[in-house]
Each structure stands twice: as structure tokens, then as C-alpha cells.
TrEMBL record:
Record key words, sorted: Transferase
InterPro entries recorded: CAT-like_dom_sf, Cmp_AcTrfase
GO molecular function: chloramphenicol O-acetyltransferase activity
Protein name: Chloramphenicol acetyltransferase
Lineage of producing organism: Bacteria, Pseudomonadati, Bacteroidota, Bacteroidia, Marinilabiliales
Length: 206
């Protein structure tokens, strides 16, 4: 982790403009082609979620703006971003699951599956306050065109949020709705587009 020198930062003007907004979070939703990855994973009977989550974390870790966080008026850049996701439980509630990003997919797959299984069977509600995370949710029952997240306006919040929806078919391709929300002082629509494009590229080129 390193601290960004704001005075010499190329985003200084944008950062100072957006950082004190009452609601500085902005976002976009996009349908991402997932045909190739889905068909390959279907052959293995492995978790499609864990496969595409690895691609999403890879894309976000490659884009430095997604590794930036605001903490006590400082901008911090983390070397690596990990994930936390909601895990659906048998009683129709959920728990949070925390997992580390590993470039090596077999290691990521094994550790993430273990973390998901643990979260499913925990009776207590698990929360952490780490900054080097991406908040992940999955709504596999519907596709969507937008989504709104809850916020505590008196709490500093600069962690991006990503939501994956139900896969659907369009023009002979499998599509998955993906929503990303982030702090506008740290990144813009350009960086969101870079993520969507890179994520889709990783889903195609397996």
C-alpha cells in the first residue's frame, strides 16, 4: 500500500471536486458477453461464479483506479484487491464471504470455494472493515438494467461495489448484467468502461 501525493496527482482537480459530495458514488450497468466461459465451465461442473469472479478481480486489479481508497483525507493505493460476496443460505438469508485474489486460478478456486462453504454454514453474521476489498453481490434470479445500494452517509465509503445478475440469451450469445458503483473522486466513466471491456475480453479469451 502507498499513499498518493495528491498535490502531484493528475486527478487532483477531480478528486477535490467530488470528494465532499453528499453522495459521491456513481455507477453504470452493462450486459457482458459470457458465452465462451460459461460453455467451458459447464463441461467441468465447477462453479461458474468462482470462474467469473476471478476474471472480475483480475480486471479490477489491472486497473489502478479500482485499487484506490480514501481514508481520513488520504488517498491510498493498494497493491492487491480481494473480494467479499454475499452467500445465499438455506433459510433465504445471506452471509458475507471473504476471499483473497490469487493470479493462479487453481489456488483461487480452491480457497474461494472453501470460503463460500464456510460462510454458508456459519450461524453468525460476519463483517469486516478492510479497505482492500471489492463488495460483490449476485442476483441470479433476474437480469436487471440498474441497481441501488444502501449507504451510511456519515461513514466514509470509497469501496467499489459490483453486482452480477441472471444470465440470458440475446442474438445467440449468453449475456450477464453487471453493475459497478464507485467513488467519483477516484475514477470516472472511462475507468468503468475499461473494466467492462477488460472483463468481457477475459470472459471470451479463455
Amino acid at each position: 500500500m502507498k499513499e498518493i501525493e495528491i498535490e502531484n496527482w493528475n486527478r487532483k482537480a477531480q478528486y477535490q471536486f467530488f470528494k465532499n459530495f453528499d453522495d459521491p458514488m456513481f455507477g453504470a450497468s452493462s450486459n457482458v458477453i459470457c458465452t465462451n466461459l460459461y460453455n467451458e465451465v459447464k463441461k467441468t461442473k465447477e462453479s461458474f461464479f468462482v470462474h467469473y469472479m476471478h476474471k472480475a478481480l483480475q480486471a479490477m486489479n489491472e486497473i489502478s483506479e479500482f485499487r484506490l481508497r480514501i481514508s481520513e483525507d488520504k488517498v491510498l493505493e493498494f497493491q492487491k484487491i480481494n473480494g467479499t460476496t454475499t452467500v445465499f443460505k438455506k433459510n433465504n438469508t445471506f452471509n458475507f464471504c471473504y476471499f483473497n485474489y490469487h493470479k493462479e486460478f487453481p489456488k483461487f478456486y480452491s480457497s474461494t470455494c472453501d470460503a463460500i462453504d464456510t460462510a454458508k454454514n456459519q450461524d453468525h453474521f460476519v463483517t469486516k472493515n478492510d479497505l482492500n476489498l471489492i463488495y460483490v453481490s449476485v442476483i441470479p434470479w433476474r437480469n436487471f438494467t440498474s441497481i441501488k445500494h444502501p449507504r451510511m452517509f456519515d461513514k466514509e465509503d470509497s469501496i467499489p461495489k459490483i453486482v452480477f445478475g441472471k444470465i440470458f440469451e440475446e442474438n445467440n450469445q449468453l449475456m450477464m448484467p453487471v453493475s459497478v458503483e464507485a467513488h467519483h473522486a477516484l475514477l470516472d466513466g472511462y475507468h468503468l468502461s475499461c473494466f467492462f471491456n477488460r472483463f468481457e475480453e477475459l470472459m471470451k479469451n479463455i
